[in-house]
Design goal:
This protein is of the alpha/beta class. It folds into 2 domains: 67 residues, lambda repressor-like DNA-binding domains (434 Repressor (Amino-terminal Domain), Orthogonal Bundle); 190 residues, 2-Layer Sandwich (Endonuclease, Chain A). Helices cover 51% and strands 12% of the residues. The chain has a 6-stranded mixed beta sheet with strand order 3-2-1-4-5-6, with helices on both faces. The chain starts with 9 loop residues before the first helix and ends with a helix.
Length: 274
């Protein structure tokens, strides 16, 4: 990776190779677009890694560039386990040296237990399929593997108190989830802070936020909403997001106070089971 650049994910690598092959073939984006009967803008999106071609379009690319099925075969390997809006962020998680995450209403995915994640995925669909939920849970658990061992990222976690109070999956699942977070903080696997209700308004009220830093590339910020997400690498936007995170962190409880609150919330959930 080059200094100042966002780490390249699979889509970006695909797009860069497409650009190299197009130039080697002596073709402009407009010429490729004519061969494929699409707009030059679409070719531009492919080359920038913002979009991937459909299987049919990948075959048309190969025909236009004379690449003998290269892009169609590569596309098969880029079938992400995650939603399109999150796929690039998921790849960058694996390369990050530091992750700072804020949970507005939910426990961040990297920290979720299987029971918590399963309850969420069931709630997202009116007629969920068990095999689909199982697949999503496995993918989410696999993401957390980056936190194992000594080579994983430094992890900061800031939670709104609402995350502690909403019972996802029932009282036992919720208590287990909170105890996992507390245990990770106590053993040094994450730095934990909670924004209590008493703080009132704060700088992160509008969105969850993930900040990622890298050894040899520029930092990025990721925000997510309903069926959409935005991975930001513009330096000014990333700086604004980091400032918002720092402001909220300044309003949060200390790690000791946060641990006590998380454990107390877990006990309250367990008590209500009795």
């Amino acid at each position: 990776m080059l200094e100042g650049r966002v780490p390249r994910g699979p889509r970006e690598k695909y797009g860069e190779e497409l650009k190299l092959r197009r130039i080697a073939a002596g073709m402009t984006q407009e010429a490729v677009a004519r061969e494929m009967m699409c707009s030059p803008t679409l070719i531009s999106h492919y080359e920038a890694g913002r979009r991937l071609p459909s299987p049919a379009d990948a075959k048309r690319l190969d025909k236009a560039l004379g690449t003998d099925g290269f892009f169609a075969r590569w596309l098969e390997d880029l079938d992400s386990k995650f939603a399109d809006h999150f796929a690039a962020a998921a790849e960058l998680e694996k390369q990050a040296t530091e992750i700072r995450q804020y949970g507005l209403t939910l426990v961040p995915g990297l920290l979720q237990t299987e029971a918590y994640a399963r309850a969420l995925f069931r709630s997202y669909n009116p007629n969920y399929r068990t095999d689909d939920v199982d697949r999503r849970v496995v993918n989410r658990m696999d993401r957390a593997q980056i936190l194992e061992g000594t080579s994983g990222p430094v992890l900061w976690t800031l939670l709104d108190e609402a995350v502690l109070r909403r019972r996802v999956g029932g009282v036992l699942a919720m208590a287990t989830q909170l105890r996992k977070i507390a245990s990770m903080a106590e053993t040094g696997r994450l730095r934990l802070h909670v924004l209590p209700f008493g703080v009132g308004e704060h700088s992160l009220m509008e969105s969850l936020l993930t900040l990622m830093s890298f050894n040899d590339a520029a930092p990025v910020a990721y925000v997510e909403g309903m069926y959409t997400g935005n991975l930001m690498d513009d330096p000014a936007l990333v700086t604004n997001c980091r400032t918002a995170y720092d402001l909220a962190l300044g309003d949060a409880l200390s790690q000791g106070e946060s641990l006590a609150l998380v454990r107390a919330a877990a006990e309250e959930h367990e008590h209500d089971q009795q």
